[in-house]
Amino acid sequence: TVVVDLNQRKVIYVTNGKDASTVDRFAEDFAAHKGDAKAIKIVTCDMSLGFKKGINEHFVNSSTVIDKFHVIKHANEAVDDVRKWELRQGPWYKYLLAKTKYLWLKNDDNLTENQKEKRESLLHKRLKTARAYAMRVTLQDIYELSTSRIEAEERLKKLCGWIARSRIDSMKKFG
Question: What is the pTM of this model?
């Protein structure tokens, strides 16, 4: 686990582990270096329940923000689960979706022109994978294009509604 002061863009602590005891050790080190745990207002981390427990215990005045990388990672996993499920739905789906994993998981900048064209043609088929992908892209757009917290919250609520009504189990679980 790497702890970074985001204001100074500087690593301030590194340790093994990914649970509440990891946060315990950091809190001890932070206090030993004259850090004030009550002054910490925002903590950014992944979705580890151990981290959450330790943060709630030691940094009582902080809000936790789940970092973009981990949110998008979970969205990608959900999209891939949909693709795998759909592959098993019959020969037509297998024909369309075989060897397409990375078409759905990579951003446009990382695809060749042929891959972009193939994904574009698949987006026009009635595939749950294509809808799940569109949800993931919408999520990324919220991160990249929202100009305020209010705008991001409105767009995220709308996306969560879409996901909840989608009848795509992996995406609903992600949502």
Answer: 0.82
